[in-house]
Each structure stands twice: as C-alpha cells, then as structure tokens.
Design goal:
This protein is an all-beta fold. The chain is 0% helix and 48% strand. The chain is built from no helices and 13 strands.
Length: 141
C-alpha cells in the first residue's frame, strides 16, 4: 500500500502461530521517493484487524495499550522504519482474541493493518489499509 505518493506501508506478520501464543504484528513504513518526507500521527498510528470468512473477529484496538508515541516521523529518501530499527509505534504484541477476550480458536484467518496518518500536524489523518495476509492458528504442541 502506498500513502502520500511515496510512503510504502507494509504489514509484517507470521503465517502461523500456536493457539494462545503471543503474536507480533507490525507495520513497516518506507520512503520510496527522492526527498525526505514528514508525516504525523496520533497514538493510534496502527490498527490490526483479523477476519474469518470475511467477518471481523478481532481489532488490536480492543486490547492495545499505547506507549511512548512519537507524533512526528521523518523518513529520509529510501529509508525504512521497521520494528527492528526502533519504530515501535506501529506494532501490536498479544494473543489473538475476540472482543470478549477469548482466544481465537484453531483455524485459518486473514489479517490486515491500517495506518492512520497525515501530512499536517492538525490531526486530520487518513487511513491506509494494507493487503490482507493469511494467518493460521494451530494447536499448541
């Protein structure tokens, strides 16, 4: 998914997890342009949605705790911010659970990420949705 002409938003997720295992989902943001780009976001930069047969069964916002968020991000030309390089505002770590905090059962699901960000500091954010990716929950060994 490309935001603002040259900021690439990618979802990084495992394809398979054990039942009730902690899962790390995160967005990686890359500047594919030739100039440094600045973008803004609130504490909800990233949201992750899990679906089953096209129906939403989980939103990370149902259980997310926001930490120390940097509201302005500057990406140099050709640079990428990923979880491994200190970009932690676009992450979720937790067990895949439903709105009642019950672990999602073993089965096949899809997950996609949504980045909420804008080009001005006024807090008018647009949503940029990644393509969905399959994720399978398997019985723990």
């Amino acid at each position: 998914m490309v935001a603002f002409d040259d900021i690439v938003v990618e979802l990084n997720t495992p394809s398979e997890v054990d039942f009730q295992q902690l899962v790390l989902l995160h967005l990686a943001l890359s500047n594919a342009g030739d100039e440094t780009r600045t973008f803004y976001h609130g504490p909800d930069l990233a949201e992750f949605i899990v679906t089953k047969d096209g129906v939403q069964v989980m939103s990370s916002h149902d259980q997310l705790e926001f930490g120390n968020i940097q509201y302005t991000n500057v990406l140099g030309a050709g640079k990428t911010r990923r979880f491994e390089t200190g970009f932690t505002a676009g992450t979720f770590e937790g067990v895949l659970i439903d709105r009642d905090f019950v672990a999602l059962p073993v089965g096949d699901y899809e997950v996609y990420g949504i980045a909420h960000m804008g080009l001005t500091a006024e807090g008018e954010y647009e949503q940029f949705m990644t393509p969905s990716q399959p994720i399978r929950i398997v019985a723990a060994p």
